[in-house]
Amino acid sequence: MVAGVAEAAVAAAAERGPAAGAPAGVPLCGVGIGWRPEIAGVVEGLPGLGFCEVVAEAVPAAPSRGVTELRERPGALRGLAAGVAVVPHGVRLGLGDADGVAPERVAHLAACARMFGSPLVSEHVAFVRAAGREAGHLLPLPRTREALDVLTENVRRTTAELGVPLALEPIAALFDWPDDEYTEGDFLTELLDRTGTLLLLDVANLYANARNRGQDPSAVLDRMPLDRVAYVHMAGGAVHPDDPTGLYHDTHQNPVPDEVLTLLAEVRERSAAPAVMLERDGRYPPAAELRAELDALATAAHLPPPT
User: Fold this and answer.
1) Sign of CA dihedral 275, 118, 283, 199
2) Which of 72, 148, 185, 204 has the lowest CB atom count within 10 Å?
3) Domain range for residue 258?
4) Is residue 116 part of a domain?
5) What span, in angstroms and rounded, lies between the C-alpha atoms of 169 and 10?
6) pTM of the full predicted structure?
7) Is 125 helix (H, G, I), strand (E, B) or coil?
8) Strands 198-202 and 229-234: what pairing?
9) Can you tell me the distance from the alpha carbon of 232 to that of 207, in angstroms, rounded to the nearest whole number?
10) Confidence of residue 80 (pLDDT cuts 50, 70, 90)
């Protein structure tokens, strides 16, 4: 399933060749994967892996020295081949939190970037807590001027401490707030313009949101700031059989569907998108299937396969 539709979708893009270059100063390229302990052996055995993404909150702080003194990557990550870039990916910073970003979380993200020698870091356009209470989830922001002001200030505080570029990822949201003043694309464009940050374009999230909102994913893509894409996320999803709403969930536990691969080919037509990666979180397939899924991403993005 993962390659058939994508082959036809990328034929025209392959003939045209790469689009305009990626944003300057972001050296990520090729096909990458989200590193997880369960698939570490497969990841370390990929000779052509372009880069690897690591959840920042999964990197332990040195207990006696604090997060700002991280010096050595955890033992489980030492098997990565030399030269494979590692991108810390935050999930709990809460850039949309009205109470502001927690300094210790920013410090940990910055320490991870220094420890790995990372070319950039990434986080989500979301909030994770309110009034001191943790939600345990990435929650969507209302796309209003007020929320944009809060988000802008938090992003500026964060980038001032990081020392490397920051790429922002719009999330998969199962609901929208009733008083939105922007489309998602316009909201992101203004945010990137205000802050000078980059876009982590999650094609699976874009597909999920468009499908659940009854929108055309290609039309949504039209309004995205594709000239600012640092790299691309890809993942699988599904409609839960016990969900009466019929909503499509971004599960990270299913194969990437053909529709999302086709959308990736569209992204490649409109933007260089020189780096694309697979996210898997649970229900890990056999090694051969995982490699085949990475190869399908490479085909759709017109990039060299990592296997």
Assistant:
1) negative
2) 72
3) 4-301
4) yes
5) 24
6) 0.89
7) strand
8) parallel
9) 13
10) confident
Q: Note whether residue 307 is domain-resident.
A: no
Residue 24 dihedral angles phi and psi, to the nearest 5°: -65, 145
Pairing relation of β-strands 133-139 and 127-130? antiparallel
Q: Which of 150-187 are b and which e, b meaning 16 or more Cβ less than 10 Å from the residue's Cβ?
A: bbbebbeebbeebebbbbbbbbbbeeeeeeeebebbeb
Domain count, the chain: 1
Q: Are 6 and 268 in contact (CB under 8 A)?
A: no
Q: Which of 205, 223, 201, 225 is nearest to 213 (CA)?
A: 205
- pLDDT, tens digit (0-9, with 9 covering 90-100), for 272-302: 767 999 999 989 999 999 999 999 999 999 9
Contact 54, 116 (CB under 8 A): yes
Report residue 63 CA to chain centroid gap. 29
306 assigned to some structural domain: no
Q: What is the CATH number of the domain that holds 22?
A: 3.20.20.150
Mean pLDDT score of the chain: 87
Instruction: Give the pLDDT confidence score for residue 68 in this predicted structure.
Output: 52
- pLDDT tens profile 241-272: 888 888 999 999 999 999 999 999 999 988 87
| Residue 168 is assigned to a structural domain of this protein | yes
3-state secondary structure of 275: strand
Q: At what angle do helices 203-213 and 258-270 cross, to 10 degrees?
A: 110
Query: What letter would DSSP give residue 56?
Result: G
